[in-house]
Amino acid sequence: MAWEEKDNTLYHSYTFKNFSEAFAFMTRVALLAEKHDHHPTWKNTYNKLEIWLNTHDKGDIVTEKDRSLAANIDKLWTI
Protein backbone atom coordinates (compact mmCIF):
# COMPACT_ATOMS: atom_id res chain seq x y z
CA MET A 1 0.00 0.00 0.00
CA ALA A 2 1.34 3.36 -0.97
CA TRP A 3 0.81 6.66 0.75
CA GLU A 4 -1.71 8.85 -1.06
CA GLU A 5 -1.01 12.54 -1.51
CA LYS A 6 -4.21 14.54 -1.19
CA ASP A 7 -5.31 17.86 0.28
CA ASN A 8 -1.71 18.86 1.10
CA THR A 9 -1.13 15.71 3.16
CA LEU A 10 0.30 12.24 2.81
CA TYR A 11 -2.43 9.80 3.85
CA HIS A 12 -2.37 6.13 4.73
CA SER A 13 -4.79 3.79 6.48
CA TYR A 14 -4.04 0.52 8.22
CA THR A 15 -6.23 -2.31 9.46
CA PHE A 16 -5.14 -4.64 12.26
CA LYS A 17 -6.54 -7.79 13.86
CA ASN A 18 -7.65 -5.90 16.96
CA PHE A 19 -7.24 -2.75 19.04
CA SER A 20 -4.13 -4.03 20.83
CA GLU A 21 -2.25 -4.50 17.56
CA ALA A 22 -3.34 -1.09 16.31
CA PHE A 23 -2.26 0.57 19.55
CA ALA A 24 1.09 -1.24 19.58
CA PHE A 25 1.79 0.02 16.05
CA MET A 26 0.75 3.55 17.06
CA THR A 27 3.22 3.38 19.94
CA ARG A 28 6.05 2.42 17.59
CA VAL A 29 5.05 5.21 15.19
CA ALA A 30 4.93 7.71 18.07
CA LEU A 31 8.50 6.86 19.11
CA LEU A 32 9.65 7.11 15.49
CA ALA A 33 7.88 10.44 14.98
CA GLU A 34 9.52 11.84 18.09
CA LYS A 35 12.95 10.87 16.70
CA HIS A 36 12.06 12.71 13.48
CA ASP A 37 10.73 15.68 15.47
CA HIS A 38 7.60 15.33 13.37
CA HIS A 39 4.19 14.46 14.70
CA PRO A 40 1.35 13.01 12.63
CA THR A 41 -2.31 13.72 12.69
CA TRP A 42 -4.01 10.40 13.23
CA LYS A 43 -7.27 8.70 14.09
CA ASN A 44 -7.75 5.29 15.65
CA THR A 45 -11.02 3.43 15.91
CA TYR A 46 -10.74 -0.13 17.24
CA ASN A 47 -8.57 -1.94 14.64
CA LYS A 48 -8.30 0.89 12.12
CA LEU A 49 -5.64 3.59 12.04
CA GLU A 50 -5.50 6.57 9.69
CA ILE A 51 -2.42 8.80 9.45
CA TRP A 52 -2.04 12.20 7.78
CA LEU A 53 1.37 13.83 7.41
CA ASN A 54 2.22 17.40 6.48
CA THR A 55 4.71 19.95 7.70
CA HIS A 56 2.94 22.53 9.82
CA ASP A 57 5.81 25.03 10.03
CA LYS A 58 6.10 25.09 6.21
CA GLY A 59 2.47 26.09 5.71
CA ASP A 60 0.80 22.69 6.07
CA ILE A 61 2.21 21.23 2.88
CA VAL A 62 3.90 17.93 2.08
CA THR A 63 7.68 18.18 2.34
CA GLU A 64 10.64 15.80 2.33
CA LYS A 65 10.24 15.59 6.11
CA ASP A 66 6.83 13.95 5.56
CA ARG A 67 8.11 11.62 2.86
CA SER A 68 10.97 10.53 5.11
CA LEU A 69 8.68 9.78 8.05
CA ALA A 70 6.24 7.94 5.76
CA ALA A 71 9.07 5.75 4.43
CA ASN A 72 10.16 4.94 7.97
CA ILE A 73 6.60 4.14 9.04
CA ASP A 74 6.45 1.75 6.07
CA LYS A 75 9.55 0.01 7.43
CA LEU A 76 7.79 -0.47 10.79
CA TRP A 77 4.78 -1.94 8.98
CA THR A 78 6.89 -4.61 7.32
CA ILE A 79 8.49 -5.81 10.58
UniProtKB/TrEMBL annotation:
Q: Which reaction does it catalyse?
A: (4aS,6R)-4a-hydroxy-L-erythro-5,6,7,8-tetrahydrobiopterin = (6R)-L-erythro-6,7-dihydrobiopterin + H2O
User: In terms of domain of life, where is this protein from?
Assistant: Bacteria
Query: What keywords appear on the UniProt entry?
Result: Lyase
Query: In its UniProt record, which GO terms are filed under biological process?
Result: tetrahydrobiopterin biosynthetic process
Record flagged with keyword Lyase: yes
Would you identify the family this protein belongs to, as annotated? Belongs to the pterin-4-alpha-carbinolamine dehydratase family.
Protein name stated in the entry: 4a-hydroxytetrahydrobiopterin dehydratase
Q: Which organism is it from?
A: Flavipsychrobacter stenotrophus
